[in-house]
Amino acid sequence: MSKWKDFLKHFDSKEIKVETLKQEAEKGFSEYGVYPRSINEVGNAIVMMARGDEEKCLLVIGEDSRLEDLEGTIIEQDGIKIKVCPLSNENCDVIRAIFPYTNPQSHKGKKITIGLGDRLGLASPGHIETVRDLDVFPVLAQQSIRELNLTGRTYEDVISSAAWAVFQEGYTKGYGADGDHLKTAEEVKMSLDVGMTMITLDCSEHIDNAAADADIADLKEKYQSFPAAEREKWEEKYSNKSFKVGEFNFNISEDDLVRMACVYGGAIHHSVDIYHNLIAKCDRSIDFEMSIDETLTSTSPASHYFVAAELIDADVEITSLAPRFCGEFQKGIDYIGDLEQFTEEFSIHCAIAEHFGYKISVHSGSDKFKVFPVVGEKTHGNYHLKTAGTNWLEAVRVIAKHDPDLYRRMHAFALEHLDEARKYYHIGAKEENIPALNDLKDEQLSELMDMDDSRQVMHITYGLLLQAEDENGKSLFRDEFYDVMYEYEAEYAETLKKHIGRHLTTLGL
Ligand SMILES: [Zn+2]
To answer: Using an 8 Å Cβ cutoff, are 87 and 55 in contact?
Structure first.
């Protein structure tokens, strides 16, 4: 029997006070499994979230017309009628209509914003706990199309997971939803239609990487393919000019302009199109992020300036821009590169962002502890940082600790399918550096999540692991994985608080 049924004894008095219910739920959480902060009044009805035997549910006691559309089963217990509703996307829509704070919103004007992403749809309660008392705006929902494909989720699912978590935790300070690394107009449109509040436009397919070090004579020919009027304007604005941004100076020569135009011209056109055709026309306020980070070489200050100036002149409202920084930002491990050079270049990028009035966005930000102090300082506490989905790794840590057998099977599968995963994600991990599973005792398994190589292997194989099925179509790991995570929900939240908390303290928060 679901434990929450015992909680109903608090409903037998005539006058039920929400505050009293909250106190009882909090005191007796392990006894009842009712989330205290989710208890709310809707007219004469009370709604609350609770842990059922196998999954969470929304409970409705009493009636209100706004709750009529909730789908669920009505049961009677101790003379009380209760509607037990699944946490479906449809039911989430009903809750979102009643409680505005459960809807994602734009973060314009907020100084520190952090993209937390949640591949499993289980991490947001822990993420909320981490930022609750800080001046940090969390973008709880943040997934790329690649992540959606690899996890078999939709943006509706992603927003719902975040919204339910926000409701469960009674978090009223607002959160965002980022359609991350979107490439096409179709993807942007779909994301806006389902309610994403931030669009990160990945311009990589419109950036000509080869032009970065092509022969200038060849580039001059390509440059002629841009309309004459546009070339004239560019030449007037940039050719043989020096620029002063904050305390930094740089020059753009005639050849520099030709090269920058060839590399970034297409990306600028693409962004301006997407912005004016879709984002500016959206009836909500949308945070637009221009991402030029998926290039082969790092973004020079002049290129950054050129791209930004062109967008601003075309009336594009940029909330954040993600340049490609020097060094390597590999998934799930610390920064690899020259920290001094990073600091120097990062400072210039920050000055340019400040000059134009948007913020710098740092991608693949999980575990980049070496650069965090620089990010906190040089941005003057005005930045967007995207974590790289390492909440998945923290979930794997919980699995390794509590279901060693499942972990061992997942680990073996991940190694077997590593080449497949490497097609989507670039990592430096070497298999030979990973200790053999048979040499490890069960209690040592979770330590694998502290070693770079095994960490990266598990990090990039999430999609294959979650989607793996046997010949009968039964999931190999997914169902078991979710069952264990359900049992250890509180521990997962604690683990995340520690993991993301370390990010925030290193950033200077
Ligand atoms: Zn990125």
So the answer is: yes
Residues whose CB is less than 8 angstroms from the CB of residue 332 and which lie 6 or more positions away in sequence, other chains included: 366, 367, 388, 390, 393, 427, 452, 455, 456, 459
Q: Which residues make up the environment of ion ligand 1, defined by Cβ < 5 Å?
A: 293, 363
Distance 90 CA to ligand 1 centre (A): 31
Distance 39 CA to ligand 1 centre (A): 38
Q: Kindly report the pTM of this predicted structure.
A: 0.96
Query: Which helix (DSSP H) or strand (DSSP E) does residue 465 occupy?
Result: helix 462-467
Q: Are 265 and 306 in contact (CB under 8 A)?
A: no
Q: Which of 187, 289, 394, 453 is catalytic?
A: 289
User: Which domains, and CATH codes, for the chain?
Assistant: 3-88 (no CATH), 101-386 (3.20.20.70), 402-489 (no CATH)
- Please check the confidence at residue 12 and state whether its pLDDT lies above 80: no
Query: CB–CB of 237/224 below 8 Å?
Result: no
Contact at 8 Å (CB) between 120 and 391?
A: yes
Tokens of 110: 């907020």
Predicted confidence (pLDDT) per residue in 334-363, tens digit = 999 999 999 999 999 999 999 999 999 999
User: For residue 170, how far is its CA from the centre of ligand 1 (angstroms)?
Assistant: 31
Q: What is the DSSP string of 185-216?
A: HHHHHHHHHHT-SEEEEE-GGG--GGGGGS-H
Q: What is the pLDDT of residues 144-198, one digit of tens each?
A: 999 999 999 999 999 999 999 999 999 999 999 999 999 999 999 999 999 999 9
pLDDT exceeds cutoff 80 at 1: no
Q: pLDDT value at position 190?
A: 98
| CA 83 to each of CA 60, 161, 332: distance values in angstroms, whole numbers, following the listed order | 5, 21, 42
What is the Cα–Cα distance from 119 to 263, expressed in whole angstroms? 33
The answer to whether 147 is a known catalytic residue is no
The whole-number pLDDT of residue 286 equals 98
263, 209 Cβ separation under 8 angstroms: yes
* Spacing, Cα 293 to ligand 1 middle (Å): 6
Annotation says 450 is catalytic: no
What is the band of 231 on the pLDDT scale with cuts at 50, 70, 90? very high
From the CA of 331, how far away is ligand 1's center (Å)?
10
Q: Give per-residue pLDDT as tens, 24-39.
A: 999 999 999 999 999 9
